[in-house]
Design goal:
alpha+beta, Alpha-Beta Plaits, Rossmann fold, 15 strands, about 55% helix, globular
Length: about 675
């Protein structure tokens, strides 16, 4: 069929809160959806429109004029607020479209969709191009909401609302967190990350692979916020199962979970994450019963490919996760032929309380900083509840290593707990990516066995290609810092960012390695991207400060360190970076002051000797610096492995006569 271009009024409708409604009352929701479909089909025709697509909880239609489109919208909202009430939002724009094979294309379609997503139940929003054609028409009362920048639209769009009796008119402040407004200085943190991803990602619609999916965090339908971790665990386990299909691109946890609690249009979610399919759902837990609803959705249209409801005993939760994963594979016609006959069933606890404690611990672990202590409590309690829970032992080992790596605990306290926990993790769960990663980290930082670490990181990635820490550390330690394979290391980081585009951790670690190789422009770009994604991250602030310092902007490093110190409770990395920045600014007294503060902490409590050695060497206190470096080697300070080769912070330390003896002790 020949493509036809024409100017049309484009209308999107969408039922607000559809997923939540399905979780609360599936029968009533189906009635609402059916009523919505009936009304749309009737009224679109009545107002000389053409229904292009109906996708379950929404529709797309076009009209020969804006007057017909707005009249239709008014009638739709009037009809849907009586008898069976349907919470619908509508967005309208006028523009040139390409009509081919029953589908329409063009920027106008995207704009109409974006405008619709800004609305609330009962609202009709539209663009200035629509307003210009109807502003003298007394049938329509209007209100200007503001000039906004919509995602993937290269110019500002003025947005209006119909304000006729009975319609909902959003306040500008109510939609500020869902758009990029010129006048808005701050938006919600999660929305910042999502908006930033649109600036960062190179993905465009034509490049989105058909076999690609994001699993959004399932909605907690109970009144207990602690159940959020249970719901997150369900979503994460589904991700960990379907990622085994070699032909399926699965977006990582960090990126998918950015959309938690955000009522974002699914077309926008798909575009942001670069996926064609989205799995969303809800969980309601009551006593020993659980209800899970799940829907597989075509992101570009919102069409529901598959949905199911599971009413089971709570003990069946792990079977349900596997069932959902298999049904997704069946819908996408995926197989593991030549790889596995079926996805590997991840070894799990049978204890729901332990399961919930573990995922709460992991959620806290990902935050790093002082949240690591809260994660530690969760992992310990999970093990107490189920002494054979492999993932909990892996989490326990990981958190102890990170507490020491970040300077919160001494190596003695770390290794005496981490090493046996790592062994038990392997004993109870050999086929898990988490246990392979734990083994790799211990081999790297304690045993100094680089070959074993490299092998175990690869094993972890073969099981779960989206394991961000495994890929980042494999790149940093095994490829770049130990073998100076920068090209291969950078390729691994690019893959990590592709798999998990909203991961500030992957972006900041990549920036660190780029700056270490004097690629400062690209390094700062990635570090600033990471800051947009997570401005509260200590790691992000440190890495950005590192890039600024060694590219010749120490004053900017000080700014980042001051913020990081408020986050981190006198973090050793930030203290040593601050001292180096003050020396670069010729403010020797301030550097000495920081050194004396660090030395005092080191003598009275604990501060990693590696970090103190960095500052001592920079101040010319070579004898003391070597003494501290030997102490770090004696105690197996995990941070020492990080600074013995290429990291710029320790350049002065590595130049001291006698430091080669330290490297020899470490087997380098």
């Amino acid at each position: 069929m020949k493509a036809i271009r024409k100017l049309s009024a484009i209308m999107f409708t969408d039922i607000v809160g559809y997923t939540t409604m399905m979780g609360r009352d599936e029968s009533m929701t189906i009635k609402k959806v059916t009523h919505h479909e009936k009304v749309i089909k009737q009224l679109v025709t009545e107002f000389e429109g053409e229904l292009i697509q109906f996708y379950g909880d929404g529709s797309l239609s076009i009209y020969p004029s804006t007057t017909f489109a707005l009249k239709c919208a008014l009638k739709i909202q009037e009809t849907l607020r009586s008898n069976i009430i349907v919470p619908l939002r509508i967005g309208i724009h006028i523009g040139e479209i390409l009509f081919k094979d029953g589908n329409i294309y063009g920027e106008g379609v995207n704009i109409a969709s974006r405008i619709e997503s800004l609305g609330q139940a009962g609202s009709v929003l539209f663009s200035s191009s629509v307003f210009q054609t109807i502003h003298n028409n007394r049938l329509f009362k209007t209100r200007f909401l503001g000039e906004v920048e919509l995602k993937n639209v290269n110019r500002p769009v003025m947005v209006y609302a119909l304000s006729n009796d009975g319609l909902t008119v959003p306040e500008p402040k109510d939609i500020a967190g869902r758009i990029k407004s010129r006048d808005e200085q701050q938006v919600a943190k999660s929305m910042n990350r999502i908006d930033s991803a649109n600036d960062i990602s190179d993905t465009i619609a034509e490049k989105i692979p058909d076999l690609s999916i994001a699993v959004l965090p399932f909605v907690n339908m109970s009144s207990d916020p602690e159940q959020d971790y249970f719901c997150e665990g369900i979503s994460e386990e589904i991700i960990n199962t379907i990622v085994q299909f070699p032909d399926l691109t699965v977006v990582g946890r960090t990126s998918s979970f950015c959309f938690k609690g955000i009522n974002e249009d699914l077309r926008s979610v798909g575009n942001t994450l670069g996926v064609s399919k989205i799995l969303e759902g809800s969980v309601r837990k009551s006593g020993n019963r659980i209800r899970i609803t799940a829907q597989l959705i075509e992101a570009s249209t919102g069409f529901h490919l598959w949905s199911n409801k599971y009413d089971r005993e709570l003990d069946d939760i792990f079977k349900i996760q596997d069932e959902i994963s298999h049904e997704i594979a069946e819908q996408l016609k995926l197989t593991l032929e030549g790889v596995h006959p079926n996805p590997i069933i991840r070894q799990q606890t049978k204890n729901v309380k332990a399961y919930q404690l573990y995922y709460k611990g992991r959620s806290l672990f990902y935050k790093r900083g002082t949240s690591l202590f809260d994660a530690l409590k969760c992992f310990k309690e999970a093990i107490k509840t189920d002494p054979h829970y492999a993932l909990a032992y892996s989490g326990l080992a990981d958190v102890y290593v990170m507490l020491s790596f970040h300077g919160y605990l001494s190596p003695d306290e770390c290794w005496k707990e981490a090493i046996p926990a790592g062994r038990l993790a392997v004993e109870y769960g050999q086929g898990l990516s988490e246990t392979h990663n734990t083994t790799a980290v211990i081999a790297l930082l304690h045993d100094r066995n680089f070959e074993k670490a490299k092998s175990e990181f690869v094993n972890a990635l073969n099981i779960n290609p989206n394991h961000v820490q495994a890929r980042a550390w494999y790149s940093m330690f095994c490829l770049i810092l130990s073998e100076e394979k920068f090209k291969e290391g950078y390729e691994q980081f690019s893959l990590a960012i592709k798999n998990d585009p909203l991961s500030s951790y992957a972006q900041s670690c990549y920036a660190l390695m780029l700056a270490t190789n004097d690629q400062f422009i690209e390094a700062i770009n990635h570090a600033e991207n990471a800051l947009k994604l997570d401005p509260d991250s200590l790691i992000v602030r440190y890495c950005l400060g590192y890039c600024y310092l060694w590219s010749g902007s120490p004053e900017k490093t000080i700014e980042q360190c001051e913020i990081a110190l408020k986050i981190s409770r006198q973090h050793a990395w930030v203290l040593h970076l601050s001292a180096l920045a003050y020396l670069a600014l010729d403010q020797h007294d301030k550097a000495v002051q920081i050194f004396e503060e660090m030395d005092s902490i080191h003598r009275k409590q604990y501060l990693p000797p590696s970090n103190l050695a960095i500052v001592a060497a920079a101040l010319g206190k070579n004898k003391y610096a070597l003494e501290l470096a030997h102490k770090a080697a004696d105690t197996v300070d995990p941070y020492l492995s990080f600074i013995t080769t290429l990291i710029k912070d320790s350049t002065a330390l590595r130049k001291i006569d006698g430091f080669k003896a330290i490297q020899k002790r470490l087997g380098e």
